[in-house]
Amino acid sequence: MTARLVFLGRLEDVAGGAERDVTPGPLEAVLASLAPDLAVALLGERVRMALNGVLIAERGGIVLRAGDELAFLPPVSGG
Amino acid sequence: MTARLVFLGRLEDVAGGAERDVTPGPLEAVLASLAPDLAVALLGERVRMALNGVLIAERGGIVLRAGDELAFLPPVSGG
Amino acid sequence: MAQDVRLLESRFVPTDEMAAFYAAHSASGGIVSFLGQMRGDGAELLELRHFAPLTLPGMRELAQTCITRWQLSGLLMLHRTGQMAPGEPIVLVAAAAPHRRQAFAAADYAMDHLKSESWFWKRERRAGQWHWIEPRADDYAGLARWV
Amino acid sequence: MAQDVRLLESRFVPTDEMAAFYAAHSASGGIVSFLGQMRGDGAELLELRHFAPLTLPGMRELAQTCITRWQLSGLLMLHRTGQMAPGEPIVLVAAAAPHRRQAFAAADYAMDHLKSESWFWKRERRAGQWHWIEPRADDYAGLARWV
Question: What is the model's pTM?
């Protein structure tokens, strides 16, 4: 089983796709497995995260389990 | 031939009608011929006047001629 | 036609007017509209009187001011006169502009000035008695926002 | 129903939506609407993406905030997702309230927050190339008016 990363807005371009399956584990380990420019973009201070559809207030201590979906949400530009 | 006074808004109630024909002459003489409460209402400082459809900037020196129409416009309440 | 200003003596249909305005301004980024209707707050009838030589010319001048000040691509300004029953439309203003803020400001400005500076007098009938409506201090406060 | 909030994947017809809203709120004193359309300024296509778990719930929360804050009798909030061509409607907001200022403020507030705090990401295609649109400082300035 894998976990899934979801990339919104311009992060999709950086990632080269709207989502990607990754090996479960601590977020640090997951990010370390990605291309450095993508990891840097995902860690931007204005990028928010939602774990299984729920916004995360704190970035620390996230561990992805099998079946989890972690979405990266850059600043919005709607309307 | 007569001149005509036109009363807008609540001035119509004070005058007892939307318009009234009067003997031409200086405005002072015309007003003196009206009931005192109507004359007072027409001279209210927020009442504006239009002579033959044109707003009058100055109140002084108006002389009504035969066929003239003088409208009294109290504060508006539209929209 | 950028300016569509009308003084109407009988009931108008806001949906039809907005349909025509939307159709005429499909290339505008933003369209703001305001519809004012007679409230059902106890009055049986509302009557709007105007002064023909000044009212429509004044509305046209106001419309032109809005078009120039906010670079509108179009402005619709309809105002009823005569008697209206509860629920009947009284006034409809719609502004089309390249950007949202221009359209909002123009519609807001047009309404503030229609309320406080246009040549309309309003009275309503309650329990069989007609009463003239005096302007509210609130209306003038609206105007003061624009100077 | 006071709140009508929808996320739409295909084209909507603003006139039809306004017709229904006017019909539902004929007793409201004032109704303000905003229609945002794709401008014909050189972009060939506009695409709006969203994040399903958050976007519609966020819009509903925003609508409820508007209804409560301005005592609205009704609020319509429609937002497109997916791809749109020039002239196509993107967003429609309409607020019905007893008084004009409440309706204006609610529609204005709803648009400021849809633009800057709702979960949408926009990109456009110009000369065959897609570009993501970054939020503008202007959008945040809009928000600051409400605190």
Answer: 0.93
Q: Which of D135, B63, C39 is nearest to A77 (CA)?
A: D135
- Domains annotated on chain B, with CATH: 3-73 (3.10.20.30)
How confident is the model over C17-64, as pLDDT tens digits? 999 999 999 989 999 999 999 987 889 999 999 999 999 999 999 999
pLDDT tens-digit series, residues C5-18: 999 999 999 999 99
Determine the pLDDT at residue B78: 65
Query: Best residue in D12, D16, D17, D26 to probe C by mutation, most C CBs within 10 Å?
Result: D26
Examine chains C and D and say if they touch (3+ CB pairs below 8 A).
yes
**CB A78 to CB D120 under 8 A?**
yes
Q: Residue C11 sits in a domain of what CATH number?
A: 3.90.1170.40
- Residue D107 near chain C (CB below 8 Å): yes
pLDDT < 50 stretches in chain D: none
pLDDT in tens, B3-39: 999 999 999 999 999 999 999 999 999 999 999 999 9
Separation CA C71–CA D42 (nearest Å): 20
CA angle C56, C57, C61 (to 5 degrees): 115
User: Chain C within 8 Å of D93 (Cβ-Cβ)?
Assistant: no
Q: Order of strands, edge to edge, in the sheet holding D129-132?
A: D82-84, D45-50, D120-126, D129-132
Touching partners of B (3+ C-beta pairs < 8 Å): C
The Cα D90–Cα A39 span in angstroms is 33
The residue range of the domain holding D20 is 2-144
